[in-house]
Design a protein that fits this description.
Six copies of one chain form a homohexamer. By secondary structure, chain A is α+β, with helices and mostly antiparallel strands. Chain A is built from one helix and five strands; from the N terminus they run αβββββ. The first copy, chain A, has one domain: Roll (SH3 type barrels). Chains in contact: A-B, A-E, B-C, C-D, D-F, E-F.
């Protein structure tokens, strides 16, 4: 829980670009759920997804993939 | 198990706000279960969810997402 | 495997109280299995659940939630 | 992978007793598979289960629970 | 999150060869999803898969296997 | 990702013997998939399975069990 976000990693940078540009994303979870929205922020444990104004905190451990539209 | 809660992380702060304000949350687990209630506390391993007075200890490793109503 | 149980964490303390008072618990696993019984002990890797005298060693990594009756 | 088995943990000790006494165990995996047999050894990553002479290496990360008969 | 890619590991080297040579891969996820494409890059947390120009960020924790065609 | 393979562990040694002797193995994944083949190598993150000449990189985190034929 005390790990910092490694801002030099390609995955961190890709996500930073996606959230800065408010690109639409599709996040598939291990439950099979698919969330469509934009990213508000990322931290080492979670991504915060905005789906039509609804704040959803998504655990990274539960993410299968994220597609950039 | 000896990790401390990183109170500076956005996800920790979002959850602290949610539990302080007793906001209703929907917690989706990797089992497909959905818990509706409020948060009592969080620690590095678990969230404690109050569902109509019933105490449920939820392992973070089993959480897919948490929606704030 | 060498991590110690952090006895200061709320989740550890809640579980210690539950096992000391022999409170009935419902443990839901990621497999969908539900175990009903009491706790014998906890360590950093497992919970030991007593279901009618049957000893069941449950891996924390496989727990979705634990409800206190 | 370099973690050592913490022989002081209750779960390690319970498993050591089970394998020393060749007690029958039922191991439920997150896949839903159930293995019945005895334990040959444990290490920090795996349990070695003997099911009628067949050697099965089981990853701890995939174990839901282990019942001692 | 601050772990670096261990470029000496056989799995890292295999993936480096695959992405350098733009070999077609099939990535099976724990959700059951199968992604077919080529690799753009790897980092300690994710693989970036290119499926017909679509960028998909795949979490390593959600990968079951990767087949090289 | 920088963890080294602990060659002293029984599970590492069992797998080394299996791959050296080209013993047939059955690898069951958490997805339910079963791979039959031989092992080419192991590292801390993955096993490389050869299924009729097809190279499959299997993540350890996705393995339920491995049976030696």
């Amino acid at each position: 829980m005390t790990l910092e976000l490694d801002t030099g990693l390609p995955s961190t940078k890709l996500l930073q670009g996606v959230l800065r540009d408010k690109q639409a994303v599709e996040v598939k979870l291990v439950t099979g759920d698919i969330l469509n929205g934009t990213l508000r922020w990322q931290d080492p444990n979670c991504l915060c997804v905005d789906t039509e104004g609804q704040v959803t905190l998504v655990w990274r451990s539960a993410i299968a993939y994220l597609k950039v539209s």
